[in-house]
Write a structure and sequence with these properties.
The chain has eleven helices and 14 strands. With 316 residues, the chain is of the alpha/beta class. It has one domain: Ribonuclease Z/Hydroxyacylglutathione hydrolase-like (Metallo-beta-lactamase, Chain A). The strands form two sheets. It has a seven-stranded mixed β-sheet with strand order 6-5-4-3-2-1-14. Strand 8 and strand 9 form a beta hairpin. Helix 10 packs parallel to helix 11. The radius of gyration is 19 Å and the shape is globular. The termini are close together. The structure holds zinc ion (2 copies). The site of one zinc ion has 5 residues, from loops.
Length: 316
């Protein structure tokens, strides 16, 4: 049996478990290790049975708990090489700062009323928790463990080149997004095909091609264009989100579902919904309208992934 459990989806953290009868993969670790384990337990998944971690790109909402989770489980992490390098760059400046320094800097920034560096990341609690865990690890274990970037094993893949993790075949494909080398994934096991495409500014031809014949299609439906235009973000951030290297709008997702998508998935999961610039009902109605001619009893059941709770597992 093939199973997919979205543990979290949105700009405060993304993580999904994809498993066959024999192999279990964690796709992105955008929550603290503690929260990942908690949500896996709530969804009836045992973290200790995970075989590998796969990373789509180095943005914080996809890697926040990566180092701690990989080390705790002792499992390999699959990246593209540019994404691994970008992740190390993201981690390294913090290495030179003590936790106390970091807290003090953060407090000063809050007092000055400064916005967080990435306005998409508003909730820093999980991040603090992660820093505590990292600090504890580096104090407790001398030697290579002091390196916050240390991972049990790193495996490189390239977009367009398929590989296998256990009996799950994985096809990474390039997506247009403002990260070093971002990818979407198609997973195949036991005759079931799962496509994951979030964090993309638009739907390019290669992504459309890879997302054909999926049994489960997880697709970004990030923002409502009017809410984004009228919303609280600074104009530069609005431009970034709307750009061809940003995020897929409800409208763009609906356009894809209506015109290019083959209509064959049992489940369509709308994902990475913005909490500031979208409403679940807007995303749902937009996708429902796009899929109305595809409605049948057996296909296109629409689900909405959320930020704060795992989505009920999809079994195929
Ligand atoms: Zn993201
Ligand atoms: Zn991103």
């Amino acid at each position: 049996m093939v199973k997919m459990t979205v543990l979290a989806s949105g700009s405060r953290g993304n993580s999904t478990v994809v498993s066959s009868s024999r192999t279990r993969i964690l796709v992105d670790v955008g929550l603290s290790c503690r929260e990942i384990f908690k949500r896996m337990a709530a969804a009836g998944e045992d973290p200790r049975t995970l075989d590998a971690i796969l990373i789509t790109h180095e943005h914080q909402d996809h890697v926040q708990g990566l180092a701690v989770t990989a080390r705790k489980l002792g499992i390999p992490v699959y990246f593209t090489e540019p994404t691994h390098r970008a992740w190390i760059r993201w981690m390294t400046p913090q290495k030179k700062m003590t936790y106390a320094d970091w807290l003090a800097a953060r407090k000063a920034a809050a007092q000055a009323g400064a916005a967080p560096a990435n306005p998409e990341i508003e909730d820093r609690e999980a991040f603090e928790e992660e820093r505590e865990e990292l600090a504890a690890v580096s104090q407790a274990k001398p030697g290579p463990e002091k390196d916050p970037c240390a991972l049990p094993a790193v495996e490189y893949f390239s977009a367009g080149d398929g590989f296998c993790v256990g009996d799950i075949s994985v096809t990474p494909f390039t997506i247009p997004h403002d990260a070093a080398d971002p990818v979407g994934f198609v997973f195949e096991a036991e005759g079931v095909r799962i496509g994951l495409a979030t964090d993309l500014g638009y739907m390019p031809p290669n992504a459309k091609r890879h997302l054909k014949r999926c049994d489960v299609l997880m697709l970004e439906s990030n923002h409502d264009l009017d809410m984004l235009r009228d919303g609280p973000y600074p104009w530069s951030v609005k431009q970034r989100v709307m750009s061809r290297m940003g995020h897929l709008s409800n409208l763009a997702a609906a356009e894809f579902l209506e015109t290019e998508y083959d209509g064959g998935a049992a489940y369509v999961v709308l994902a990475h919904l913005s909490e500031n610039n979208n409403l679940p009902e807007l995303a749902r109605v937009s996708a429902e309208r796009a899929l109305r001619d595809r409605a049948s009893l057996l296909t296109n059941e629409l689900l909405l992934a959320t930020q704060d709770h795992p989505l009920e597992s999809i079994l195929l």
